[in-house]
Amino acid sequence: MKKALVTGASSGIGREFARQLSAVGYELILTARRAERLEQLQKELKTPTRIITADLSSEQECLSLYEQTKGDGVDVLINCAGSGVFGPFLETSLERELRMNDVNIRALHILTKLFCRDFAGQGSGRILNVSSSAAFQPGPLFSSYYASKAYVLRLTEALAEELRRGGSSVTVSVLCPGPVETEFDGVAGVKPGRKGLSPERAAACGLRGMFAGKTVIVPGGGMKAALLGERFLPEWAVVRIMYRIQRRKSG
Known about the structure:
This protein has 251 residues and is an alpha/beta fold. The chain has a single domain (3-247), classed as 3-Layer(aba) Sandwich (Rossmann fold), CATH 3.40.50. Helix content is 50%, strand content 13%. It is built from 9 helices and 7 strands, in the order βαβαβαβαβαβααβαα. The protein has a 7-stranded parallel β-sheet, with helices on both faces. The chain is globular, with a radius of gyration of 18 Å.
């Protein structure tokens, strides 16, 4: 049986990744901070599921997660854990921003590097990193979050090209959805904006693209068109437009 490790599996897109992978026969290893959420999810899944409670803002817990799972035959790694901090850069909490970067960047970097080495050694494996459409532009009032997602996008693109040029059968993909209906806005302190994608659709698009070996996955025709349109605008215009958009989200 194929096996997948999903981080951030207690809610939102991560939970849907678990449900959809289980539905196609994947054995699962699920990790998040909230054990009770994972236990509830475990009860509804039809394939064997192991739970590892971990706080991925801790480097040691990231390394421990790898050590606990490296010998389990993981075929798919989905880095979905993440968070955001909203507000003017001079006013937001440094502690919260650093914790966010520890999860959005450092944890993803650690797990991608260690598992990708293993996958390359065995000659197979897939990694899906969850970024955001935020990765494609600057985000005034959401600056640290947007920057962290740009890191995820560029790291994945570069690694995918290295693997391709090396003739590896290992694939690395990045999912860049627009707004998704999850707990994210509430946790980040953002006023809900326009209706977003369902977590089910976002996860399905991500899995479909990952299994097809696609590097950059952007769900939804509307978001693809918006990102294409930005290419024809000067950078200063994009920044000002993004400021207006983000200002509307201020609670």
